[in-house]
Fold:
Amino acid sequence: MIRLLLKVLGPEHAPPVRRTVALMTTTAIAEGLSYALLVPVLRALFGSEPGDVWLPLAGFGAAVAIYAVLRYVSDLSGFRAGTTLLRAMYHRLGDHLARLPIGWYSADRVGQLSVLASNGVLQAMGVIAHLLAPFISACVTPLTIVAVMLAFNWQLGLAALAAAPVVAAIQVWTGRAMAVHDAERAERRHEAAGRVIEYLQAQPVLRAGGRTTERFRLLDDSLTELQRASRRTVLSALPGVVALALAVQAVFTVLLVLGAYLALGGHIGVPEVLTILVLAARSADPLLSLSDISGKLRGARAELVRLDAVLHTPPLPEPPDPVEPDRHDLEFDSVVFRHGDHTVIDDVSVSVPEGRRLAVVGPSGAGKSTLLQLLARFYDVDAGAVRVGGVDVRAVASEVLMSRIAFVFQAVHLFDGTIEENVRLGRAGATDAEVRAAVTAARLDEVIDRLPGGWAAHVGEGGALLSGGERQRVSIARALLKDAPVVLLDEVTSALDPVNEAAVHAGIERLMAGRTVVMVAHRLRTVRRADHIVFLDNGRVTEQGTHEELLRHGGRYADYWHLSMTPAAD
Amino acid sequence: MSDTALLRPHLRSFTTVVVLQVIGAVAGLAPLLAVVELGRALLASGPVDHGHVWFVVTAGAAGLFVRLVCTAASSGIGHLLDDRVQLSFRRRLAEALGRAPIGWFSRRRTGELAKVAGEDVSAVHPFIAHTPGELVAAFVVPLVSLVYLFTVDWRLTLITLIPVALAVALVPLMMTPARLREQKEFDAAMGRIADSVVEFVHGIAVVKAFGGSERASRRFLAAVADFTTSFFRMVRGLAPLGAGMQVALSPPFVLLAVLTGGAALITNGGMAPADLLPFLLLGLGLTAPVAALGHGFDDTQTARRAVGRIRDVLTVRPLPEPAHPVAPQGHRVELRDVRFGYVTGHEVLRGIDLVLEPGTVTAVVGPSGSGKSTLVQLLPRFFDPAHGSVVLGGVDLRDLGSQALYRLVSFVFQDVRLLRASVADNIALAVPHAGHDDVVRAARLANIHDRILELPRGYDTVIGEDTGLSGGEAQRIAIARALLADTPVLVLDEATAFADPQTEHAVRQALATLDGDRTILVIAHRLETVADADTVVLLENGTVAERGTPTELLAQQGKFAAFWQTREEEVR
Structure:
């Protein structure tokens, strides 16, 4: 557990963690040892001269004082280490996330990551602050007490010692058994969560089918499965809990019987046997709490494993000797890109001379957006090369590559801030006049005029307060301000209403002027003026040429063109 | 609905769990008392009564056994009960969500609702399986001990309580306004860190594309710094108090108090040495309530908040169903002076009068924010109008009954949802008993049949497991779904059609094929669709600005004509 924690955090955090663990162990041992001093105290009190108690009692008092100081210091150290580690964890996570390839951020991952970064980190780091001390004390103090017992009476000591391997074996065995069931339950929970989301999102359709009066079978099945998995987990945990309780209590009973027997036979003094029984009773509760603490530790461990997996995802490698491209023609050279075992881009070779426009057309799922993303190095190719100005994008420093490219996405994400802040993201050092010019060129000024608060209006989380077309205009203004020589457009005009579409088109035209452009589009009217068009199907270029050439060729592109031009009545 | 009402069906098992836990905990005192009695017997002057000693030992062992059985049973039953409660909570949530007005969903995030059904229900776990039993045990056992100890020696009992009193005395120091403010700041900082993580991760593509990754991570790191500072401040304030409390409640400290008091009473107060034993054994248990309070309190608070959120969902009022549903005559749709707003004081629709005749296609056009999407959502009764009425076949939708309504109205909206089920099941969603031939016919009409045959298992392919479909393909499945439902009223958002030309074509074909008598309302995005429509309605700012046939409107040279011309100029 500690090893995993240190692996996740990095070796530089080992000393404080080790120090805290050592401190907590010392405290637990001190507690156990202080109990040894109970024997002289009780011997005096139960003996013929109770007045002699004060000296041993002072000794016990001193031991307690030492323990109290240690305990106080180690508790504080735990808190402090936990907090420091928490900060370190967040920094590490933040740094790493910024370096991961964008391709890694699927919608699924984003959701999981949000949970992991907020609750997961806290739960994992809580180990040091909250779980470690009780765990160490529950293990070490009873062991020390056993050692004390051995010192006073070997028979009783041995009987108590017998508990140690049994308890340890039960812990290990339960841990293993539970890991399997925990994993299964986690999987069922994930499955059920997916079904709930599906159920929520499909409400309109489900109702249309009158499917809400009966229970929705797919959801109900997964909920029932979850309950079954949970029940299996509980039933499998029960033997471990019972066995632990049985072992601890059996040993206590043995000590009670053996102690009574030895005392009746006069083999041991009454104060000794009573002290040992008091200490045995004292050890039972922490031991019994082990099953509870271990359960929590397992939960924290699972979070740590997830964090470890994220932190060990390799980022895209940066070139050791970066090259700066001095021109801006683009080239795909026999590019192959796979996602899992699915080949998304299959041997594509296309080039775009500087200042020209390439349009990529094809059915959805053909890999069009992926081509753009490979140019911006959201992923690395599996074979072949993507070049900007004749330089492989992998040889260009990522900051430099990004400074050459303006990317307008289909789905625009805005940060919760003002419109101006979002536009300024395009170029941090832009002057006010430049920002105004970009805003006007993107016809964003119309939107700003309409908004209450104008320039200073907040756009809400993810830009939720603006419509899709309005968000698109912000992203175009951003790209205009960036003034990069390469422009990538990904289905920019999808699903816009005519007013926004007109505005967006005007902005796009200004953005494209004099730049090298790659655009993905299916609205063929926007495509026809491109210098070169490729038709992508299933990751392969099946046709290419100018609009007129492709129409004459009479292939899929021509079909598409006619399909979108003919009225349906025919 | 109160928290207890949610739990009432499980009250008996719940009580069993708590009672077993208490019996087990009290039985756990038996071995301790056995040690006490053993001590008394051994310390008594005169010969030791062997029979008594063995009886005491047996009783102690028996107590341990009862404790083992009861706590194991309580834990087992508790957890199984917990599973049952969770299942029934989730089922009831699903049921409530299945009745909530569709409009209600649009104002909530799916993730939040899913969290209620998932994590929040799980958070009830300690509430049911652990905390009540543990809390009761944590109070009953010390109480029993306390009464017993008082009968032994009241003076030493009070001394034994000193550590508890010390710990309790520290509690007010934890509740000072400064401490509470720190706590609040910590909660707020925690919220900010979660938000900034989400924003950081969601915006990562933009962040990278615009080289702003430093900026965004700065924001994130600022939130982290903010969080750790407030966490440090809180810990600095609380940690010494917490650690002090731990020391006061720790067994060595309690033993020291008992022994010091005991030594004083034995040497000067005439207390029998054997009477010290119960305090050594039971005295430690007296600290349990204070410790349990701190420990169980957090979980209970979390569970309570979770139950609150669950209750919020369960108490959502469904759109009222009519007591006596009226059968509609025909399927003419009328909107009569319809007004509607999502928030009070801001109307999205401001007095719409509109008649959709059977056998006609009505195209709605207008800029974003004009209320188009809201208008079409009133037809499948995602919302009820605030004023005026939507009438289908002469009957107000509110008097129609939802079953009848959905047999009459189907819709294809932008947001297509496919279920993780077979393709055939997905198409037949609204018509569960449709034959295979009908499904295939609908798929052909929607231009998706050939694609389905290419899938690994054809119509039996499970979407999301065996294969994923592209956006356009998913939309064509949705169109097939609506075609199969074959309702006399069809509502369609044409933005659906923009995934690719094939889908676009499928929509137009569907519109053209749906013959005769159907009432069709479409949010139009393409000039072709508008040109083919029987009636065009131009919405502006929540009111109907112009209406008429496409040719009439173009000839009028009004707003509609201007609207389309701007588009043509830019696009062509």
